Amino acid sequence: MRNQIGAPKGLSLNDPRVRAWLFQILTIVAVVGLGWYLFHNTQTNLQHRGITSGFDFLERSAGFGIAQHLIPYTEQDSYARVFVIGLLNTLLVTFIGIILATLLGFIIGVARLSPNWMINKLATVYVETFRNIPPLLQILFWYFAVFLTLPGPKGSINLSDTFFISNRGLNMPGASLTDGFWPFVVAVLLAVAATALMVRWANRRFEASGQPFHKFWAGLAVMLVIPGLSVLLFGNPLSWEMPQLKGFNFVGGWVLIPELLALTLALTIYTAAFIAEIVRSGIRSVSYGQTEAARSLGLREGPTLRKVIIPQALRVIIPPLTSQYLNLAKNSSLAAGIGYPEMVSLFAGTVLNQTGQAIEVIAITMSVYLAISISISMLMNWYNKRIALIER
């Protein structure tokens, strides 16, 4: 009789590894089959309707104007340039909104923990009000009820003869590059590098000897002196053009259109309400013993919050904060409700209506939002790992 000891086992569904591989193979086959069916069905329907597919339409002339474009644009430019303009406008709102919402959210979140009754209740009212109103309604409110009701350019609100607010937007001084711009950029980079080296040296010195060093004031001096020397040697890096009222509108300078102001303000206020709750819960997660230990060392309330509580709370704050950043980026598509020229209203709206290339346009738009979301997630995950506790 043959000895079966050590003989390899046959394939059996009773083996968990065999079942795992089988289920994965079946899943892959099902996904590929469904994808092929959808692709084949789409191609067949397009051929029956005489619709050509492909991305050649991106090279055709757009033939329409755009209210806001961060790069030069004319109506004769291609749809590809329209795509770039929509992408830049989306990134502009996302970038500004994330910064402002983070600052406002941290302030409101800390205010909710204030022992002052008035500050605490005002912060609570802010959070409970703005996080329970849909963002689209807030956008419409700021656009139609606030900015469009402002006076015209002739009756605009004048702020120090520099900024002018009207129903046409916010007019401000515009900057243009001079010959001293790039030397100034190099000087700023050198100042940043010097400050980083100084901070690293100060930290090592403190760990070795226990002697503190005024890193903030020293870094501030470096950041002012080196770029200041560049300005003295090569001149101002920028020249400024002031807006002037001529006829029925302002000319010169920069203008932030009402659609941009309403969208940014609404998304900032809405997202900050959620960030405030995240900050409050993160601070609450830090043991009160940390505060007592800081007080026993003679630290005041401000340094205790900045140097003891917030660094520990960030480990709890960052993961849900990432979700709010992603929500803000995706909520920027609500700008279609007020006509701000971002990706959805400009590319998935106007371009789609003119070209009829629905599949290509929607695929490009979805890919853009996917890329923006993945980029934000990767950046925040990297930062989260940087501040994570290292266990031994």
Automatic annotation (TrEMBL):
Pfam families: BPD_transp_1 (PF00528). Keywords: Amino-acid transport, Cell membrane, Membrane, Transmembrane, Transmembrane helix, Transport. InterPro entries: AA_ABC_transptr_permease_3TM, ArtM/GltK/GlnP/TcyL/YhdX-like, MetI-like, MetI-like_sf. Belongs to the binding-protein-dependent transport system permease family. HisMQ subfamily. The chain crosses the membrane at residues 21-39, 82-111, 132-150, 181-202, 214-234, 254-276, 334-352, 358-383. It is found in: Cell inner membrane; Cell membrane. It comes from Pseudomonas fontis. It is a multi-pass membrane protein. CDD domains: TM_PBP2. Residues 87-380 form the ABC transmembrane type-1 domain. This is Amino acid ABC transporter permease. Its main location: membrane. The lineage of its organism: Bacteria, Pseudomonadati, Pseudomonadota, Gammaproteobacteria, Pseudomonadales.
